[in-house]
Amino acid sequence: MVTLVYCHPLEGSLNAAARTAALDSLTGVEVHLVDLSAPDRDTSALAAKDADALARSTALVLVYPTWWSGPPGALQHWFDEVWTPSATFGSIRRIIVCTTHGSSKLVNSLEGESGKRTASRYLRSRCAPRCQVRWVALYGLDRCGADRRARHLAQIRRAVSLLAS
Fold first, then answer.
1. What's the half-sphere exposure (Cβ side, CA atoms, 13 Å) at 113?
2. Closest CA relative to residue 136, chosen from 104, 103, 95
3. How confident is the model over 65-88, as pLDDT tens digits?
4. Cα(91)–Cα(129) distance, integer angstroms
5. CB 100 within 8 A of CB 16
6. Measured between alpha carbons, how far is 102 from 107 in angstroms, rounded to an integer?
7. Which phi and psi (to 5°) does residue 122 adopt?
8. What confidence tens digit (pLDDT) does each residue in 7-36 have?
9. DSSP labels for the chain?
10. In what order do the strands lie in the sheet with 59-66?
11. Among 142, 143, 154, 124, which residue's Cα sits nearest to residue 62?
12. Which fold has domain 2-164?
């Protein structure tokens, strides 16, 4: 099973297209979709269900925009609710983060890339011992054209399709 966590408030966004690309690449795989943008979602009430799904998952896919150098508040809240200090998810062997940044790679590096650190250090440390983290990011979204956006979606499809094999 793969747990896919999606967080973006606009259905017509590039991140919504990234979620669709990831889901389409998981054909034949059981997917637990966590849509943190659903208007009726109560993260606290569903935390136990999400933790149970993570305990049975072999991979975690996160799809979100990077805002103000970090994940959206709803995703951070989900981390706090589900990834409690005592929670470990030893069956997760792969984490794929699909995100977008308005600023350049250089600016993100100078800011410390907190989202990348969260996945590669904190989340990874709570998963299987040799858990691999893949970072699929589109930098400079505010200034890129349709061709770069299409390449970003293709990169997501390639990365996530490896989970289906």
1. 17
2. 95
3. 998 888 998 999 999 999 999 999
4. 10
5. no
6. 10
7. -70, -60
8. 998 888 999 999 999 999 999 999 999 999
9. -EEEEE--S-TTSHHHHHHHHHHHTTTTS-EEEEETT-TT--HHHHHHHHHHHHHH-SEEEEEEEEBTTB--HHHHHHHHHHS-TT--BTT--EEEEEEEESS-HHHHHHHT-HHHHIIIIIIHHTB-TT-EEEEEEE--GGG--HHHHHHHHHHHHHHHHGGG-
10. 31-35, 2-6, 59-66, 94-101, 132-138
11. 124
12. Rossmann fold (3.40.50)
Structure tokens given for 131: 């858990």
Domain parsing of the chain, residue ranges: 2-164
- Cβ 96 vs Cβ 162: under 8 Å: no
Phi/psi of residue 97, nearest 5 degrees:
-110, 120
What six digits make up the tokens of 79? 């981390």
Q: Would you say 29 and 58 are in contact if contact means Cβ atoms under 8 Å apart?
A: no
